[in-house]
Amino acid sequence: MNRIDYPEIDESVYRHQCDNGLDVFIIQKPGYSKKFVTYTTKYGSMDDHFRVDGEAFNVPDGIAHFLEHKMFEKEEGDVFNLFSKHGASANAFTSYDRTSYLFSTTESFEKNLALLMNMVEQPYFTEETVAREVGIINEEIKMYQDNPGYKLYFETLNQMYHNLPVKTDIAGTEDSISQITSDHLFLCHRTFYHPSNMVLILVGDFDVDPLIEYIDGHQGERNVDGRPEIERILPEEPRDIVKQRSVLEMDVEETRVMLGFKHHQDSTDASERLRRDLSMMFALDMVFGEQSEYFYELMEKGLIDDSFSFSHIEEAAFSHVLFAANTEETEAFTGEIRRISDAVKDSGFFTEEKLTVQKREIIGDYLSSLNSPEYIANQYTKYYLDGYDLYRLPEIIDEITINEVEKHFIDVMDSRYMVECILKPHE
């Protein structure tokens, strides 16, 4: 076990690796009554084509999310009820690249920790329960299909991406999940839920040595042999977009538009991706944030309201920027976003003074968030799996230069790779 101290932010982390390969991080929060735990596998919706020890497999879309649902169901019943019985609140989620199981509690911590580990590590699937789950998730998919925001988002992704499974709903499709069998589930659990592909993160006030000893003992009793050689296979994705513009009609009251700027993901270095993500966050906020002159300009022209949002998504396999707003003036909105993006590129708009303000704000928000066990556990998990260290974030932020901010904005905000998706009421 290693202890890592971060004196600048007064935090300490204990890192331990079990003999079976499981990485464990204990993040001490002295005096906190709540304890928060995440148990995460590096396995998400994009992992539908892979090799294990040289053998290739293709599995149906949506299986990672399906598997997440099924892990709460055991022969003796629903594990959610057991967490509640022990005073814990439990949940889980699946993203493009990971599936995370979690609980928070102020009592019966060891019972809940054992419950979490056993639940995640011990699969229980039958053809009958799998068939039943197909019906449940089908209803979930239909519900999302009727959600305007969901429809707009995935149509925008489908306009940007030719081949990458990012354009496919994390839950899959009605057709794909109907193909899932218990054999598929056991294969994916055996492959991706191996301890060497997982991380356990615990946040709270702990007696560290006995806790490590307890986790070690539990993992030792599993008798897990070997470590699978996993190779994730993703299709080639061109820089070009699929379709520049589309218009959808639904039973909605307001017209909504989403713009997507597709960027070619050409970096395999985790620190480079983090720097670009931070740089784009700074740049977008400088240009379109609520303190920007352009934000007020768009408001005064009646092109945006409180629904206006923007985000930069930076993942290992893809990268893009999204804008969204409720507006009847879709053509004018799209034109203004393009005009503003071009105008700031050669105007000296990006300055050290603005960057300094941005850095102060994000560091302030970051330090405040470190009071939340939930934030720490979830973000530490994400940063760890992405190859970063959450507690080193202030150092990286401090290193970002205004030249990086400007360069990444120019690279990413290229209107040749912009798509526009409009969702409007039925005529």
TrEMBL record:
InterPro entries: Metalloenz_LuxS/M16, MPP/UQCRC_Complex, Pept_M16_N, Peptidase_M16_C. Residues 180-357 form the Peptidase M16 C-terminal domain. GO terms for molecular function: metal ion binding. Residues 61-173 form the Peptidase M16 N-terminal domain. PANTHER family: METALLOPROTEASE (PTHR11851), ZINC-DEPENDENT PROTEASE (PTHR11851:SF134). This is Pitrilysin family protein.
